[in-house]
Amino acid sequence: MATLKDVAKLAGVDVSTVSRALNDGSHVSKETRAKIIDVARKLGYKPNQAAQALRKGRTYSIGVLLPRLHLSSFSDILLGIEHAARDKGYSVLVCLTDDDPAVEKDYLNRMRGRMDGIIIIPTGKNTKLLREISAEGTAVLQLLRCQVPEISSVVTENETNAYNAVCYLYGRGCRTIGLICGPQQLVPFRRHHEGYMRAADELGLEAVTVVDGRNATIFEYGYECTNMLLDRYPALDAVLTAVDVQGVGVMRALRDRNIRVPEKVRVMSLTGHELGRILETGMTAMEIPAREMGTKAVRMIVEDIEAPEGRKRSVQHLTFEATLVEREST
User: Fold this and answer.
1) How far apart are CA 229 and CA 17, in angstroms?
2) Does domain 4-47 have CATH number 1.10.260.40?
3) 206-246 pLDDT per residue, tens
4) Is the whole model's pTM more than 0.85, yes or no?
């Protein structure tokens, strides 16, 4: 493995000059810096991250707090995060909160002052703590759920997604469209409900919804809510779910009642990922670019981490569009 001395020897300069050039130090001409960087690249020189961390006061690590990975778009997001972090020379510490505010608070306190940055899908219950961590100088970025407006975020337009989904199902002939959502204190669920209600109002449809439930992002919730909707609304001809795993529960409940999909009831997810594609009856969805969102989150937070002292980046809120992917369920 090439060393700093090897680079210095081939470039014809001393070791201290190589060190300053590779660490953006002063008193190195543009020509010399370019020559040293070229030599380092040709030799395959890799700087010692531990030494860099001590010198720059960085750990080159990013904490990532996600609700869960199983049967969710969060796993795709994490792939994007890990690949992008590796490319930037950062390691990732992943913690799963199960959307429990107490667990989230514990992990945030453990990461506080130990991570260069924190990427989080927040519960919305620890907003004060997130503000404090950000004010202390740790880069913080929210994914999917923008619960703190003064902290940067990467999200998708949930209200528009839900509105467009209702309009799509209406265009397919559906008139009793149920919505299975989740806790309204979480921004995506609240925006889904708002988009659904706007479309229902404009189209003259009755609101047929289940919007609460702490454990909303599980198979059983979709299953139980479907039975509830069918009992209350016998004319139900479509079901929208906030996430794919709820949709799996919906289709199982319909199958258990011998109700054919899509002939009798159409099923659609508002936050689709690859799960919907591999089902026996593929599920139509508003699919979010999960990996791209994870990648962008890392790029944004690294730019914040590496911004010169006194020139921290301003707050940014980036919104990705979802794409309608039609499959057998509609």
Assistant:
1) 71
2) yes
3) 999 987 666 788 899 999 999 999 999 999 999 999 999 99
4) no
